[in-house]
Specification:
- This protein is of the alpha/beta class and about 200 residues long.
- It has a domain of about 140 residues: Glutaredoxin (3-Layer(aba) Sandwich).
- The protein contains six helices and eight strands.
- The protein has a six-stranded mixed beta sheet, with helices on one face.
- The longest helix is centred in the middle third of the chain and has 17 residues.
- About 25% of the residues are buried.
């Protein structure tokens, strides 16, 4: 009868844990992040990276749109779980000024990424990232790491590790609302009272 060694059991548990939390040894807790107020947002760093057709892509090309910027890799299980959601969002929200932009962190570059794009039928632009790109985004340590960027090119929220589809969709929808509607909602939502004191 086969009895796994303690090291095999420990390795299996760690591998499974990293699948559900994110593809890294980072100890950050994965939880829903909230959209930062516009006054607290910082500009998303610009970059110049090549897409699958060899064309240079600048993040600044997307100013005026809500952008989901996803750092991922083909070998990352949680990344593979999120990609179909992003394909759906790109299809359903593109006409509203929304774009997904994937930044692959695969060491083998297009050799691994191009077949993956075809296999998954990815309908959004993907570029190959590098250490410099990861550093300007705060030192991306776990994959996936996803940034939602508002129409002014500012980072509204960062999702570390696997995040629920609903949390990401809610963030995107909030950023896609016209500014006048967001302001109106703030006025119409009554403050919660704790009652007389």
């Amino acid at each position: 009868m086969f009895r796994p060694s303690v090291s095999v059991v420990l390795f299996s548990a760690l591998a499974l844990g990293s699948f559900f939390v994110g593809c890294s040894s980072s100890t950050r807790t994965v939880r829903a992040a909230s959209i930062r107020p516009a006054s607290d947002r910082k500009p998303a760093p610009d970059f110049a990276l090549k897409d699958a057709d060899g064309r240079t892509v600048h993040l600044s090309d997307y100013k005026g749109k809500v952008v989901l910027l996803d750092f991922w890799a083909t070998w990352c299980g949680p990344c593979r779980m999120e990609i179909p959601w992003f394909i759906e969002m790109q299809r359903d929200k593109k006409d509203r000024g929304f774009e997904v932009l994937g930044v692959s962190m695969d060491d083998n570059g297009w050799e691994d990424v191009k077949p993956f794009l075809a296999e998954m039928k990815i309908n959004y632009r993907v570029v190959i990232g590098n250490d410099q790109t990861a550093q300007i985004y705060g030192g991306v340590e776990s994959l996936p790491t996803t940034f939602l960027i508002d129409r002014d090119g500012k980072i509204a929220v960062v999702y570390l590790g696997l995040t629920s589809k609903k949390d990401i969709q809610d963030g995107v929808e909030q950023l896609l609302q016209p500014a006048s509607k967001v302001a109106l909602n703030r006025v119409l939502v009554p403050a919660v009272s704790s009652g007389p004191k």
